[in-house]
Specification:
1 helix; about 45% helix; alpha+beta; about 25% strand; about 60 residues
Length: about 60
């Protein structure tokens, strides 16, 4: 996984079961509440964009 979190200017590459995140080139950390909110917001935005892209691409595979 690679999720760029703009407010943190960091890329999250992994999340463990305890809620710690691995930041690219920095290692594991326990995010603050503000960082958690930024990560969640960025992840939700990415999911929305991917869902939209997937819908567009799937339309192309269906016969007209």
């Amino acid at each position: 996984m690679k999720l760029f979190v703009e407010p943190m200017n960091a890329t999250v590459t992994e999340v463990d079961g305890d809620g710690r995140v691995r930041i690219k080139d920095e290692g594991w950390t326990t995010p603050t509440l503000q960082e958690l909110r930024a990560i969640i917001f960025s992840a939700q935005r990415e999911i929305d964009e991917l869902t939209e892209a997937l819908a567009i691409l799937e339309k192309k595979t269906r016969p007209s």
